[in-house]
Design a protein that fits this description.
Elements: E1 2-6, H1 11-22, E2 26-31, H2 39-48, E3 62-63, E4 70-74, H3 80-90, E5 94-97, H4 111-131, E6 136-142, H5 166-185, E7 189-194, E8 197-198, H6 207-216, E9 221-223, E10 230-231, E11 234-235, H7 236-247, E12 271-276, E13 282-283, H8 284-295, E14 301-303, H9 319-325, H10 333-348
Parallel strand pairs: 1-2, 1-5, 2-4, 5-6, 6-7, 7-12, 8-11, 9-14
Antiparallel strand pairs: 3-4, 10-13
């Protein structure tokens, strides 16, 4: 297929673009390479996939030296005209939309960034898909949509009307917007609610990166909710494998769907939503213990209350994804953390 992967300099996006290119798809990666976190890390991800750093300084397509079928372009989702021109020029068959303004806590201090990227940017993607005959749009939603829900494991059939951060609200909005376009224009769309993705090349604002860096620098780590937290940590390879399986098979309409007893995961339109996680929540203190073991150092812990926008636990029910696509996450937390620490020490040579 000819596929657009947005967020290709991001964590999940870089692995998705490389995996698709490696299997022989014709891939265009797009990213605005903003400075939400260390730009050198984003450029490093592009370099691992054969894209020269100079590509960050131009709005022209750059060819990968590693994958013949992979090209990259720096562009902004909010720039509707440029996005439209790219779709018109490249004639994509599918879109894997992984670009977004990420982070729960950052949405408390810079809400405008989330509206621009996650709402306006997503609208522009939908419009481009509408006008250029896209056969399947797969987009990143988030476990954050579950908000105040306290029924575990989180099921896509649970109510998600009570988000606790603007980030979560934008992700739920994306699902609603996608359904509208599936209903009105017949665009097959699939939303994937990602659960706490981690691994090499991960984001510096996430716990694994923050904890590793602080422990190496002999600084205390902030442990929220007094350590009483659980997360369904999911290794990036498992996430990307599941994402590509979904991308390869667009949804059809659910003929059994009833407006009297609506299934929130599907529709008469070609629309679907899945959880994608590890289905095995890990206690935060056990997670920290894995990092300590890999570094052979003990963390200094600063215990704090639950932060605004956070939830005490996440746990993905992935039965639907397993049934429909044979999804089966395989990387245990000990192995995943070890791979991250090895990458971190190699990339930074210790603490940056």
């Amino acid at each position: 297929m000819k596929i657009l992967v947005t967020g290709a300099a991001g964590f999940i996006g870089s692995f998705a673009a490389a995996s698709l290119a490696a299997r022989g798809d014709d891939v265009v990666g797009l990213d605005n390479i903003n400075d939400y976190y260390d730009v050198n890390l984003k450029l490093g991800r592009l370099e691992k996939d054969g894209i020269e750093r100079s590509a960050a300084d131009t709005d022209r397509l750059a060819q990968s030296r590693r994958y013949p079928g992979y090209r990259f372009i720096r562009a902004h989702l909010e720039d509707k005209d440029s996005l439209e021109a790219l779709f018109r020029q490249e004639r994509f068959e599918a879109v894997c939309h992984l670009a977004a303004q990420a982070g729960v806590r950052y949405s408390l201090v810079n809400p405008d960034a989330y509206i621009r990227s996650n709402i306006i940017g997503f609208q522009n993607i939908l419009e481009s898909c509408r006008h250029h005959g896209i056969k399947h749009l797969v987009y990143a939603s988030s476990s954050s949509v579950y908000g105040l829900n306290e029924t575990y494991p989180f099921s896509t059939r649970h109510n998600v009307d009570h988000p606790v951060s603007l980030y979560a609200a934008t992700k739920k909005s994306n699902e609603l917007m996608a359904h509208t376009y599936s209903h009105l224009y017949g665009i097959p769309t699939t939303g994937l609610r990602y659960f706490t993705v981690y691994g090499p090349w991960g984001r510096p604002d996430m716990a694994l990166f923050l904890f590793t860096k602080a422990i190496l620098e002999d600084r205390p780590i902030d442990v929220f909710n007094q350590g009483e937290m659980k997360r369904d940590f999911t290794y990036v390879d498992d996430i990307v494998t599941g994402t590509i399986k979904v991308l390869d098979r667009p949804p059809g309409g659910n003929e059994a769907w009833s407006g009297r007893d609506p299934d929130p995961t599907s529709s008469p339109a070609p629309y679907k939503v899945y959880n994608i996680g590890n289905n095995s929540p890990v206690a935060l203190l056990d997670f920290i213990g894995c990092i300590e073991a890999c570094l052979d150092r003990e963390a200094k812990k600063n215990f704090l209350p639950l932060q605004p926008g956070d939830v005490p636990a996440t746990w993905a029910d992935v039965d639907d994804l397993a049934r429909d696509f044979g999804y089966s996450p395989s990387v245990p937390i000990e192995q995943g953390v070890k791979r991250f620490v090895e990458w971190y020490l190699s990339f930074y040579g210790g603490a940056p």
